[in-house]
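FW: tagging you since you asked about this chain on Friday. Here's the raw sequence from the shared folder, copied in full. Didn't touch anything.
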Amino acid sequence: MKKFSTFFRANYSLVVGVAERRLDSKQDAEEIATEAFHIAWQRYQAGEPLSVPWL
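HL: got it, structure written out here
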């Protein structure tokens, strides 16, 4: 869990920033980032590596 938490903290603002530039909405960008990290968590739990390019 610590590895994922570190990954999340290091990359959340990056994902929100990219999404916000494409969506022009901070709220929508935060929702997209939350969903992306939820899927990343599921993939990580299934044994896949954490990957910034995937996000």
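FW: Residues 2-23 form the longest helix (22 residues).
HL: agreed, and The two ends are 18 Å apart (CA to CA).
FW: great, closing this out.
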